[in-house]
């Protein structure tokens, strides 16, 4: 199909030739040409429609072509398309008021960015300025963004690429919470949440610790949901040692887990919460670093040494106001919670049927389907090292088959992430699950033992 001047093939070729494909070898990158999107579907250059089963990068929470958000963008562009961050604007005031309503109680002072990684960079600087300390304790199975500070605080192997120049300053890694494959080989609930105890051990044995950084529900690294005792315990540890708790809700926020923010599941308020993605339903790039009143008070008479040209850019804020109001109007947080048992049931069925499915886990409309070669050893079908060595991963092969059946799904190393727009219906869930069901046989055939 033709655009005005370019054919679909030319569009793909120009994109490929002049742009970097991310987290991959450039050779072999054949980007799909997308021309349209509506609701839970995207449409390619040949007019084929796909169910968007991972909401693009777990961010298009409202679905595509929401007219209220589109109108808000147009209206803001007409009225005031840019104002430097030193100014007050109506949209900034309006969004701030709305955020105080929906964020965990007490998070009331904001720094706006244009991405999740920048929100984390702001969080690290704020934590370091506030505490006068340097170290951030992060966890191995985590992703916090690709810029220098955030990638240094990223526990997963995407960090390795920046390490030849020396590790990022002041970050140390502790164990993630992962009850399927516990990194310290404990078994819940007999463990007494030993992974949190280990973080305490680290705090006690390190000097100069500013903050503990967590994804409350770990995203790309496999939708790891902590047991209910974990978060209150971690909050208590942080309070005891005067260490800040930073919750990275870039992916887990905005209704994804069936609460406005994942931290709400445990009634725990972090000192700093960062987010992005779903804040505008991904209609425009916006990130947020939200801090507590005590941190806000500190900067009344301490210099706030941070800023961006596009901080609080009106064009990023107007769609956020509209997206949050749309979430409220459609009651999408409750919808995500309400659909959880249905999706869980479907995934449990997949697990019962396919020996290659080692685990299914999640919350709300945020799930992982974890593939293993062997249910006893839990050995995955591939590793990140395979990816950087250019060895094809089985999950990518299966995702390709699923795509041909009209469903886009995110695959990462040895698992799939199911995180559809929160407006998804049961019929659409069935369509996505059926596509997975059809092609998991490829993995089943490779199961050992
Ligand atoms: N933090 C988490 C938990 C994420 O999942 C991501 C992106 O996937 C980021 C931070 C980085 O956000 P961005 O890609 O907007 O910089």
From TrEMBL:
**SUPFAM superfamilies under this entry?**
PLP-dependent transferases (SSF53383)
Domain of life per record: Bacteria
Per the UniProt record, one Pfam family is Aminotran_3
Which keywords fit this entry according to its UniProt record? Aminotransferase, Pyridoxal phosphate, Transferase
Which InterPro entries does this entry report, sorted A to Z?
Aminotrans_3 (IPR005814), PyrdxlP-dep_Trfase (IPR015424), PyrdxlP-dep_Trfase_major (IPR015421), PyrdxlP-dep_Trfase_small (IPR015422)
Q: Which GO terms describe its cellular component?
A: cytosol
**Is this entry keyworded Transferase?**
yes
Assigned protein family: Belongs to the class-III pyridoxal-phosphate-dependent aminotransferase family.
What Gene Ontology terms describe what this protein does at the molecular function level? pyridoxal phosphate binding; transaminase activity
Q: What is this protein called?
A: Adenosylmethionine-8-amino-7-oxononanoate aminotransferase
């Amino acid at each position: 199909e033709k655009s005005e001047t370019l054919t679909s093939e030319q569009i793909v070729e120009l994109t490929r030739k002049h742009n970097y494909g991310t987290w991959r070898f450039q050779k072999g990158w054949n980007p799909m040409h997308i021309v349209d999107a509506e609701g839970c579907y995207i449409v390619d250059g040949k007019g084929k429609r796909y169910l968007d089963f991972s909401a693009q990068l777990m961010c298009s929470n409202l679905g595509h072509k929401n007219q209220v958000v589109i109108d808000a963008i147009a209206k803001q562009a007409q009225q005031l398309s840019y104002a430097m961050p030193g100014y007050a604007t109506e949209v900034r005031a309006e969004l701030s008021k709305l955020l105080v309503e929906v964020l965990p109680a007490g998070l009331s002072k904001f720094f706006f960015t244009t991405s999740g990684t920048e929100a984390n960079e702001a969080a690290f600087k704020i934590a370091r300025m506030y505490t006068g300390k340097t170290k951030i304790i992060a966890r191995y199975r985590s992703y916090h963004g690709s810029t220098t500070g955030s990638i240094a605080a990223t526990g997963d192997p995407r960090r390795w690429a920046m390490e030849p120049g020396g590790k990022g300053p002041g970050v140390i890694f502790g164990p993630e919470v992962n009850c399927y494959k516990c990194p310290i080989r404990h078994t819940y609930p007999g463990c007494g949440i030993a992974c949190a105890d280990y973080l305490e051990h680290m705090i006690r044995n390190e000097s100069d610790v500013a903050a503990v950084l967590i994804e409350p529900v770990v995203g790309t690294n496999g939708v790891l949901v902590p047991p209910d005792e974990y978060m209150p315990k971690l909050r208590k540890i942080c309070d005891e040692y005067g260490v800040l708790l930073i919750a990275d809700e870039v992916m887990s926020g905005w209704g994804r887990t069936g609460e406005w923010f994942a931290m709400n599941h445990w009634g725990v308020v972090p000192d700093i919460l960062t987010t992005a993605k779903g804040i505008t339903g991904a209609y425009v790039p916006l990130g947020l670093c939200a801090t507590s009143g005590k941190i806000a008070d500190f900067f009344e008479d301490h210099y706030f040494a941070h800023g961006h040209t596009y901080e609080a850019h009106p064009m990023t804020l107007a769609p956020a106001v509209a997206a949050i109001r749309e979430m409220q109007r459609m009651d999408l947080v409750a919808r995500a919670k309400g659909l959880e048992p249905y999706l869980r049931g479907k995934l449990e069925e997949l697990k019962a049927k396919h020996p290659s499915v080692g685990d299914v886990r999640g919350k709300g409309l945020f799930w992982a389907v974890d593939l293993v070669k062997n249910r006893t050893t839990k050995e995955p079908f591939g590793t990140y090292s395979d990816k950087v060595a250019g060895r094809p991963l089985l999950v990518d092969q299966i995702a390709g088959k699923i795509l041909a059946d009209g469903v886009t799904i995110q695959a990462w190393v040895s698992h799939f992430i199911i995180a559809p727009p929160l407006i998804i219906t049961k019929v659409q869930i069935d369509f996505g699950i059926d596509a997975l069901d059809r092609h998991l046989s490829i993995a089943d055939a490779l199961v050992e033992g």
